[in-house]
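Contributing new records

If you add data, match the layout below exactly. Sequence lines come first and carry their own label; structure lines follow with theirs. Keep one chain per record. Anything else will be rejected by the validation script.
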Amino acid sequence: MADPMRIRAQAAGGNATVRVLMAHEMETGQRKDAAGKIIPAWHITEVSATHNGKAVLTAEWGPAVAKNPFLQFNVKGAKAGDKISVNWKDNRGDSRTDEATVS
């Protein structure tokens, strides 16, 4: 399983800014290794986020996203103590879900 995501959610003025750092190799399928063999594609394809169980973000990604991607978004109406959950799935069928509390 992949390393945990680093999620920070900070409330300010009735909204929360959420910052997420995802640990993932994000291979495009176009690079070659030292022996000249193509490294198979391995990248995040779907990202979603919830605020207290309600969907607030969905995204479809492709192979052009950088290694260990960073994502930032705002959630209206979030306050300290609320739960933010972020989930990703990749093209190999792996997935990861992590949660943070708004501070």
